[in-house]
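Moderator note: this is an archived Q&A kept for reference. The question asked for a predicted structure of one protein chain; the sequence and the answer are reproduced below.
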Amino acid sequence: MLRALRIILVYIILAVEGRSGETPNRPSLFSKVYVVFAEEHSLEFVSGFGHCFICLAPEGATTAADLLLAPSLNFGVDTSPLGNGIFIGRYTIQPTFELVRKNTFFQQRRLIFFELNLSTDKIAELHDSLAGRIKGNYEYDFYRRNCGYYLADWLYGGVGSSENDLPGAATYLTPRSAVNKIIKKFGVSGGWVINSPGLLAEERLAALPPSERQWLKPLHSDLESIQLCQDMQLKLLYLQMLESHANPKTYPEINAEHLRLISTEPGKSVQQNLTRLETVGFKDPSTLWPNNNEGPSFACRLVANLRSNSCGIGLSWESGLRDFHTDPKPSSLLRQVHFLSIESDIFSDQIKTTCKLFEIDTIRDVNDLFGVGSSGASVLFEERINSLGARGVCAKAWSGLGVNIDGLGWTCIRLHLIADEIGKGGRFRAVPEIFFYSHTRYPFSLCLSAHSKNEFGYKAQMACPLGVDSSQNFVIGVERAPSGDSRAEVGYSKRY
């Protein structure tokens, strides 16, 4: 069963790696090495963990355009009929402009190129080892042995290298955490940010008055709507976004309109400015790479059963990955990801335990430029009844609509489909819920669910950061199950 779940999860999130290319030979000599991170993609669950690759640039590469012409080292699986399936990955050499186009133009991601501080001897060593890497097939595992692992392993010098500090016994290694390890290990002398048309359009909309913003947002959906847009910058960006998913029949008309606009003086001037915004250089990576607090967590709390007036101690540990308030926080969505966690309430006469195999919740603003629905899923064992009334072995999924209200916070109406008490006859229920989240200095969340027989459940939590980031928090919470069981907690949590 665990292997079946693993296969399902890998297929769901496989796009984080992408299909590998088919250029078998190592590149010519290179003098600069950039590790490149494609940020997490908010529109699709499958791309929610980011991706990374390595750009191998010649000595004369001094601009972002020079990097586009250089080769890149990518790692991924090939799920086509000619590939080796989802458990075998390969290193491949691909043109950098192909990877940039795929991630920015088609998937609306932002790319960050970090130039690593490597010695001449280290670069020569990497070049010599590349041919052997490209010839081999490697065991692929989304959770640990993924693109981030194998690219870092090549940079470190292999598993036998004394410099290799990749977590051998850890349960996972995300592409973001792998890039974090790489840039901390070797240092960064600067780099480039390549923005997507969609992200630039979002920034442009955010700078406009609310009334104008609401009118302009929906105009990106088709060519006729775009032609109604009077803002030249948004019009050009919307055309690029429309080109990215146009079919062969409509593309020529869209492209012709794009060319017509940039041939005018106003359009030419705005396009030149957009070109400058699309590629931005940096020297200090800390300005765009915040403290990475994704990772395992530990918590210790005082808990109280409000129904029996008993008190106890709560302990929890999870292998990862993030809460809604964990840094880095995407601006366009709320996301929490929990893998392999155990939480126990220890009282004098009983112990109540919750075990989660995984829990992933993504809330998107339906009014956003990329406005789509919100969704989530989890598999867990619940010894105590939670606010949704779930108990025993439980699998649930939900779908809903979320909105981010300026100055207030996030609100989401969602419908949970819950199968619980699996193995004991089982139950299947649909539970409506209202979720609210305030992303202030002290993040606060509230869930309110409705059940049969006029029962209801709720769960409220507040996190008070203990320091400059979100890695350590003083937490307060209260939860009521529809059966009437209630608990309160206060304590300390830390991600490390």
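Archived answer notes: The chain has a mean pLDDT of 88.
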